[in-house]
Amino acid sequence: MYIAKDLVAASAAPMVLGILADGESYGYAILARVRVLSGGHIEWTDGLLYPLLHRLEEQGLVEATWGTAENGRKRKYYRITPRGRDSLAEHRRQWRAVTDALRETWGDVKGAAAWSARLAEGMAT
Amino acid sequence: MVRAPRGRDGNVTTPDDEAGFEAQVAQWREFILGRRGVSAADADELESHLRDQAADLQASGLAPDEAFLVAVKRLGAQDEISREFARVHSDRLWKQLVLSGAREVDKGRPDRTRREIWIVVGLAALAALAIKLPSLVGLYMNDQFEFYARNASLFFLPSLAAYFAWKRRASGRTVGVLVASFVAGGILANAYPFASEGQTELLTALHLPIALWLVVGLAYVGGEWRSHPGRMDFIRFTGEWVIYMSLIALGGGVFTGITVGAFSLFGVDAFAFADEWLLPCGAMGAAIVAAWLVEAKQGIIENLAPVLTKIFTPLFAALLAALVVTIPLTWTGKPMDRDALIVLDLVLVLVLGLALYAISARDASDAPGLFDRLQFALVVTALVVDAFVLAGILGRIGEYGFTANRVAALGENLILLANLAWTAWLALGFLRRRRTLAATGRWQTSYVPVYLLWAVAVVALFPPIFSFA
């Protein structure tokens, strides 16, 4: 399934924050997690995750530390901050409002169709 | 793709493979570090990602060089990544270079970029030659000063317009308008029988460059003269061009001094050479080179200009406040002195330039801050000073009658007054959060044609009206 670029971009920050809310992680692992969580539907350009992480860091939503990986290489780990958790909660409220509204809209379309069908039926009899 | 040799079980990599992989990673790292906006720490982080990815791919059976290629592909285009980095870290000095590079039309066309250098050199040489052409027919600079003063802008502005017409791929129609404008400028500067040492001749020498500079603006925006962002870009370009010209002039002055000094050591007088060739030709060529520098190196100055505005806005605000107090205190009852009026006008033009530049360099979505209050104060005090100047000019006209100079000064100050008054009004709205900065910017760009019309009127109509005096 193809997911529009705008949608992917809009969901990127809340998704990263959500993944980091589960615990400290690093870029490569975050991307792997996104792939698993979305069932492979969400495809990020790997390199663009890092500018996003830096933006979140600048906004104080995550903090980063340099550490050493199991294989001895340098690796930058990211951790969510209390402000990041607040932001995540806000994101969730907004996304819920959007998805609820969408569900209502699409539900209404079905409801209206059923209603007009019934009306037509009533007029015919 | 050439497959790398594999070990017996198809999965073991040879030391050769490893070395090749390392070399590829090192090369990749060098490339990404060469991008603006990417710091060494960013490269470390990306490299760590690349290695993780490549290791996973190798574990699933790919040869090191294949794994490298796939990992690099997944990481994405380097320019896209570096642009994003630059956006996030906007404090990194070179951000605009990257951002402007992205909207650069000639991106990925190195032949055009390479050709640009030669076109710039050619046009600069053309401008340098143009100023020496009149001497072929016996018009020398030291005894035909008026001729050179009237025509100064005609030597280099056509080359400048040609550069932008080429760069922006101007349409045939635009080129036609440009050529017609410069021909008209040449006729107006030279066909009128100006009286010797008259005011109208001086006014032509002062106003023709303004009119023709705005004609260059038409080439700069590629014929899209209605576009307000285009006009704002040209305003910005003008400021940056002035900065570059000043820098080149400083260097040129030192160079000339050293040239003359060095030759005098050997008993050769190079002063005539410097005076007749080096300075005039150098200045003309520099005008083209400065324009090219502004185009090529936008980022550096775009970061310098806001700093300069920030430094000079408070200083000019203080100067104007002092003038507002001093002028009434020292008023003797007689009309203001002519030289005083000229100096005050210069100050006002500089203030308008500062205000313009501050607007053009600001992010239009920013909220008003201390600097905007300061700028508002600057514009309001400038308004008061302009009112004094207008009163002074009207006083002189009442006392000594109309002359070309006084009418020109009157018109210019009225134009300035109208601009400043509306700017102040818009700035007040911005401070009270009723308007955005964009409104002020739009007002300034809408006002540009007024300058053009006035400059053309002074050049075309004033000489006959004031009988070329």
Could you walk me through the main structural features you see in this protein, from its secondary elements to its overall organization?
- The complex is a heterodimer of chains A (125) and B (469).
- Chain A has 125 residues and is of the alpha+beta class.
- Helix content of chain A is 65%, strand content 13%.
- Chain A has a three-stranded antiparallel beta sheet with strand order 1-3-2.
- In chain A, a hairpin with a 5-residue loop joins strand 2 (62-68) and strand 3 (74-80).
- Chain A is elongated, with a radius of gyration of 21 Å.
- Chain B has 469 residues and is mostly helical.
- Chain B folds into three domains: 15-103, no CATH class; 110-296, no CATH class; 300-435, no CATH class.
- In chain B, helix 14 runs antiparallel to helix 15 (370-400).
- The longest helix of chain B has 38 residues, at 228-265.
- The A-B interface holds A 26-28, 45-48, 50-52, 54-55, 58, 69, 71, 73-76 and B 41-42, 44-46, 48-49, 51-53, 55, 74-78, 80-81, 84-85, 87-89.
Broad CATH class of chain A: Mainly Alpha
Determine the strand fraction of chain B and express it as a percent band: under 5%
The general outline of chain B is globular
**What is the ordering of alpha helices and beta strands of chain A?**
HEHHEEH
| Uncertain stretches of 5 or more adjacent residues of chain A | none
Estimated share of beta-strand residues of chain A = 5-15%
The average pLDDT value of chain A, as a whole number, equals: 85
**What is the number of strand segments of chain B?**
0
Quote the average pLDDT of chain B: 83
Helices and strands, with pairings:
The complex is a heterodimer of chains A (125) and B (469).
Chain A: H1 5-21, E1 25-26, H2 27-37, H3 49-58, E2 62-68, E3 74-80, H4 82-124
Antiparallel strand pairs in A: 1-3, 2-3
Helix pairs in contact in A: 1-4
Chain B: H1 15-34, H2 40-59, H3 64-75, H4 78-88, H5 95-103, H6 110-130, H7 133-136, H8 145-167, H9 172-190, H10 199-220, H11 228-265, H12 271-296, H13 298-329, H14 338-361, H15 370-400, H16 404-431, H17 437-465
